[in-house]
UniProtKB/TrEMBL annotation:
UniProt region (Disordered), positions on chain: 98-148
Gene3D superfamilies reported for this sequence: SET domain
A Pfam family annotated for this UniProt entry: SET
Source organism of the structure: Tetradesmus obliquus (Green alga)
Entries under PROSITE patterns matching the protein: SET
Residue ranges of every copy of the SET domain listed in the record: 1-232
Protein name: SET domain-containing protein
Transmembrane segments: none
Biased composition (Low complexity): 100-110
Domain of life according to the entry: Eukaryota
Length: 465
């Protein structure tokens, strides 16, 4: 499928990646190794500072024995030079990665190799196609260096500033399946991945397997349509203004994607309400988030079997007070959404709700920490909360890790509450499978599929409250 992508100029965005032919949801788009990558310690310490990539990038680009890296980076930096318009194809990228400074013992797992093979199998073209263009977002600070043979430190800094990618973990389930030790944080530069532009409602998902960057479509994409990824992590769950501020500051562009447009066209009153809700959720209950997380860790570490009981003995009344506040917020927001329901499609409502995703997630956490009524009732309530969160993620964040985790949680609750053979459990299993299909594709061997599902179930236990 990699051969089906074209690099072209996108109005107001510099270059971008478009589909040459139609692409189906869950198709693999890219699996590429980095030009450079640095591993950090496992979370919570986070990924190394991207600035540390600059000297490594200069060194990799100027290494005599691997001119392809220099070509890829120079292309990325300065697409205006006709002599360098030919982007190395995926095979070249794979080969050059063998020589790159980023070799890793963990990168030879069978899952990763499988992914690479599936790329190569589909790559029937001789390389990417792209059109000549004369402006480029990365090179604003200076024209192409006359001595184009060497990538300068200044050029490398610009490349890193706009193109580096960092993550606290590689894909946790894939790491577990391939037997990797504790997954590490990463910061690196993947030249082909860096050609994808951003959307707050992306049609592709991306993640690391070892050092390989995997990109997969999560929507059906028509020929000629742009393929987009989200540059925002958790910050994607914020209103348009907040997202745009981050994108402007970090990447220097004003986002005008479909989600931003939808929000800016929503009735003014509703926009204000979304903003107010977001502020209240993000400001006031920040302590609550911490409190909930602290509670979570405490309970998971030594009191897991008596999870709900233990929480009751700690700060139940405090949590209940916050829960009540959250419920009030949710009530008003839902009334406002209801008021404008006639002009909003189902998915528009979900897109708008994504701006205050934290509200819904905190309600879910409260529900899980503070059971109300009898066990069945509280499970019902939790099931409804999970369903709501999942619907939002299924709309704006398809194939994301959180999407897979919540689908796993929904399945667990449905099985618990209604039994493994119930219609609800079956529907939830279908959602879990679908989230997996988006993230890992539809052509996985059944055994690998089962192992990934089990690993994601475990990871959801550990990482989701
Ligand atoms: C990783 S690069 C993406 C490829 C880039 N367009 C190019 O020509 O090399 C990130 C840069 O692309 C541009 N960009 C990405 N997404 C955009 C969007 N939705 N709207 C406008 N510019 C965007 C910004 O200049 C950003 O700093």
């Amino acid at each position: 499928m990699v051969g089906e992508l074209i690099c072209a100029m996108m109005e107001g965005k510099g270059r971008g990646v478009i589909a040459r032919h139609s692409i189906a949801a869950s198709d693999l788009l890219l699996c590429a190794r980095p030009a450079v990558v640095l591993e950090g310690p496992p979370d919570p310490e986070g990924a190394p500072d991207a600035a540390r990539l600059v000297p490594a990038l200069v060194q990799a680009a100027n290494a005599q024995d691997v001119p392809q890296i220099r070509a890829a980076l120079q292309y990325l930096y300065d697409g205006t030079d006709a002599s360098r318009l030919q982007l190395p194809d995926i095979r070249t990228m794979m080969n050059l990665a063998k020589h790159s400074s980023s070799s890793s013992s963990s990168s030879s797992s069978s899952l990763q190799e499988g992914l690479q093979e599936s790329c190569c199998d589909h790559d029937h073209s001789s390389g990417h196609h792209h059109h000549h263009h004369d402006s480029h977002s990365h090179s604003a600070a200076e024209p192409a260096a006359a001595d184009a043979d060497k990538l300068t430190e200044q050029q490398a800094s610009l490349l890193v500033k706009y193109n580096a990618f960092a993550d606290d973990y590689e894909d946790l389930a894939a790491a577990a399946v391939r037997g990797a030790a504790m997954p590490h944080s990463h910061v690196g530069l993947w030249p082909q991945f860096a050609l994808f532009n951003h959307s707050c409602l992306p049609n592709s998902v991306h993640y690391l397997v070892g050092h390989a960057m995997v990109v997969r479509a999560v929507e059906d994409v028509a020929a000629g349509e742009e393929l987009t990824v989200s540059y925002l992590g958790r910050e994607e769950f914020a209103p348009a203004g907040a997202r745009q501020a981050v994108l402007q500051e970090r990447y220097g562009f004003a986002c005008g994607c479909a989600r931003c447009q939808l929000e800016s066209q929503a009735p003014r009153q509703l926009q204000q309400q979304l903003l107010d809700t977001y502020r209240q959720v993000m400001q006031a209950p920040r302590q609550l988030q911490q409190q909930l997380l602290d509670t979570y860790w405490q309970v998971m570490q030594d009191l897991k079997p008596r999870f709900l009981e233990a929480v009751e003995h700690q700060d139940q009344s405090n949590l209940a007070a916050v829960q009540a506040q959250l419920q009030t917020l949710e009530h008003f927001l839902s009334a406002a959404l209801q008021q404008h329901r006639a002009v909003l499609s189902d998915s528009a409502v979900l897109v708008l709700q994504a701006a205050v995703y934290d509200l819904y997630e905190l309600l879910l956490f409260c529900e899980q920490l503070l059971p109300q009524g009898n066990e069945a009732e509280s499970k019902h309530a939790a099931l409804a909360c999970i369903g709501r969160c999942l619907a939002i993620l299924n709309c704006v964040s398809k194939g994301a890790e959180l999407h897979v985790f919540l689908a796993s949680r929904l399945l667990q609750h449905a099985v618990d509450l209604r039994g493994p053979d119930s219609a609800q459990a079956e529907a939830a299993a279908q959602l879990f499978l679908e989230a997996h299909r988006m993230r890992y594709g539809s052509q996985l061997e059944q055994q690998v599929q089962l192992e990934l599902m089990e690993a994601n179930k475990q990871a959801a236990e550990e990482f989701l409250m």
